[in-house]
Specification:
alpha/beta, seven-stranded parallel sheet, 7 strands
Length: about 260
């Protein structure tokens, strides 16, 4: 029987993580660095990014920070170009950046809608489009013979709920986009994985106000929520499969969440 070589060590790879200044993004950056990837941290909060870079380096990892608002197309394209100038390659792209504003369609602000669409969808599209040529080259030229895109969606991309309407729209759309992209890229040996977390303890839940915040707080009080590291584990699992194996979709829920 042919021996399967697992790609559990990511030495020599360059991994981009968006939304890396906190929560799932920060945990993912740490986890990939522990697998010996050089991690490029992208977010808007430079001080937090710089602190995380220092912490990763103190733990023996490799990381750099790029301050960037990826909801602006030129900024996203410039960030990818900066990665190529520094490292000459991209092997893994984790599209994690996102925002969630909840409320009824009648009551939520249109500014909040636009922010979700701009970041959750457009920012992801801009980063993916800009990185694709380099991911294709990596899949051909790297020792791994595969490259990875991991898109962070949500259980809200599967299940619609009152007060989640626009957030649902962004995540349902992301799920469809990810599967279509996966099919487009199979011959290029670029794996597209979709992760759909349930309730996770992150700053995303601090964006709510009034009755919505009370509802979310009640949910979190009634179950043992996931930690960002639980989602980071799933991302690492996806990108360390052997080149012939792709995990296309992963739903990660708290045990008690219905």
């Amino acid at each position: 029987m042919e021996k399967i070589t697992m790609s559990k060590d990511l030495t020599g790879t360059i991994a981009i993580v968006t939304g890396a200044s906190s929560g799932i993004g920060s945990a993912t950056a740490r986890a990939l660095a522990k697998k010996n990837a050089t991690v490029v941290l992208i977010a808007r909060r430079k001080i937090r990014l710089d602190t995380l870079v220092s912490e990763i380096k103190n733990e023996g990892g490799k990381a750099v920070a790029i301050e960037c608002d990826i909801s602006n197309r030129q900024n996203a394209e410039n960030a990818v170009a900066d990665v190529i100038r520094q490292f000459g390659q991209i092997d893994i792209l984790v599209n994690n950046a996102g925002v969630m504003h909840l409320g009824t369609v009648e009551e939520t602000s249109i500014d909040g809608w636009e922010q979700m669409i701009d970041l959750n969808q457009k920012g992801l599209l801009y980063m993916t489009r800009a990185a694709l040529p380099y991911l294709k080259l990596s899949a051909i030229n790297s020792n791994r013979k595969v490259a990875d895109i991991v898109n962070i969606s949500s259980i809200a991309g599967r299940k619609a709920s009152a007060t989640f309407a626009v957030y649902n729209m962004t995540k349902f759309g992301l799920n469809g986009f990810s599967e279509a992209l996966r099919q487009e890229l199979t011959d290029s040996h670029i794996r597209v994985g979709l992760i759909e977390p349930g309730a996770v303890k992150t700053e995303l839940n601090d964006h709510h106000q009034g009755n919505i915040k009370e509802q979310i707080d009640t949910l979190f009080a009634s179950i043992e929520s996931l930690n960002p590291e639980d989602i980071a584990d799933g991302i690492v699992y996806m990108v360390t499969r052997p080149a012939h194996a792709a995990v296309a979709e992963m739903l990660i829920l708290p045990t008690e969440q219905k």
